[in-house]
Amino acid sequence: MPYPMYIAGEQVDAADGSAFTSYDPATGKPFCTVAKATGADVERAVTAARRAFDEGPWPTMSGHERADVLDRVAARLGAETRLAELEVRDSGATVRKAEQVDVPGARAAFEWSAWWARRIADTEPGGAPAPGQYLRWHPVGVVATFVPWNFPLLLAAWRIAPAIAAGNTCVVKPASFTSVTACELVRILHEEGVPPGVVNLVLGPGAVVGDALTRDPRVDMSSFTGSDAVGAQVMAAASRTGHRLQLHLGGKSANVVLSDADMDRAVSGSLWGGFLHNGQICMAGSRVLVHRSRHAEFLELFRERAGKLVLGDPMDPATDLGPLVSRQQVRTVARYVALGQEQGASLLFGGARPDATELPPHLDAKAYFRPTALTGVSAANAVFQEEIFGPVVAVCPFDDDDHAVALANDSRFHLAGAVWSADAERAWRVADRLRADRVWVNDYRMVDVSRPDPAKDAAISDRIRNDLDDYRTARRIEVSPPETGSPHQVLGLRT
Q: How far is Cα 321 from Cα 49, in angstroms, rounded to an integer?
């Protein structure tokens, strides 16, 4: 039986019975079948979400009541032992990443969303209505949530948890070939008491499912995570209905190694930032900028340590890098590496698929790509400017801090960045000049999977709080003192 969709609280197959096959990237063999939605299924899902928002109890429940449900979901995520294995088999993630980042990160998203739901007031300033100005916060309504393929479970949690914590209802559309853990997450949501219609799941290709969702006038908001190209399509479709849009798009982050950096730490951080999950991360540090006086030293140590990374079976805890998400993604990466060299870059290491004899015989060598570094890269090179979403790092020298900032900011992407220096004040000055939403100093940290702790400044706390506010809308209420009368009386006008 295929993995089902969830509509109005029930497991359902596609209206026409269609399904598609999901393949294990590591082996290339069929992993499972998944229901394939039609336009009619999207119609049913939006109808269910609309009814649950307009007539159901969820939007009118208190933050404490919603938080109780989210806490139960979080506890289940911590207890579901198969989630990590399913994430590995569906997306090609290593079991270490799945167990240490994906599952605990998903749990933390629900815990933090519950924590904030109990603490964010619905009215600002608080208290009973009295003369004055108030902001009354309301959920947006029906949210269409699009989850990418690189972190199927984690990003599904990051999108669903704050949206429903704020009182919204959702229609969730995961990437078609990494749907399984989203299916498991939605199953857990229903088993732990999320009312029917609050979270609906539709599966299938974006050309059918995604387009129908963004064009439906009953959807109040679309939250999309993915590539710039598809994000532009979502924006164009959503503009026809005028609903709210939240876009989390690509990146080409700069990782800046200043002249006084601790080279041992900087190289380790650059390996982590550039090659974690084969670079299939929007915040990947895929542009490494190194001061010219330390450039040769960096390259030598970077090549030496990259050569120790283990490619292999993602279910083996000793494996550092598993397969890319598909053979198609491998071809995309290979094309960029060739283009980079055509445009003047030199290959430092990697640059090709591993030989089949280098991997265990049950693995598909055509789904793997060696970690790769290119040197002699100019700012005009495609591998410097375009998101590759693969294990490819472009290394570029700079002359001074001003030059480093100019190179780092020479990009249309402004998602993240990092600065390495032994001088905290110098690092701060450079970091402050980078056009990036988040900058790390002497670190390249992907996510914080900390559980709620009021005494700890956890990065995920700020992210979840901001997301929760994005899923709310403010209504201004102005209350006039009884003794002054209404504005038209004050002005002496007659009505």
A: 39
pLDDT digits (tens, 9 = 90+) for 415-445: 899 999 999 999 999 999 999 988 999 999 7
Q: What is the mean pLDDT of residues 346-353?
A: 96
Distance CA 102, CA 129 (A): 44
Is 389 a residue whose pLDDT tops 80? yes
The confidence band for 239, taking pLDDT boundaries of 50, 70 and 90, is confident
Summarised one tens digit per residue, pLDDT across range 23-54 is: 999 999 998 999 999 999 999 999 999 999 99
Q: Give the separation between CA 55 and CA 70, rounded to whole angstroms.
A: 21
Identify whether the C-beta of residue 411 lies closer than 8 Å to the C-beta of residue 385.
Answer: yes
Q: What is the DSSP letter of 59?
A: G
Non-local (6+) Cβ contacts of 394 within 8 A are: 286, 287, 288, 340, 345, 373, 374, 377, 381, 383, 384
Residue 234 near residue 222, CB atoms below 8 Å: yes
Strand 372-375 relative to strand 123-124: parallel, antiparallel, unpaired? Answer: unpaired
First to last CA, the chain: 68
Instruction: For each of the domains in the chain, give its residue range(s) and CATH number, in order of start.
Output: 5-249+456-477 (3.40.605.10), 254-441 (3.40.309.10)
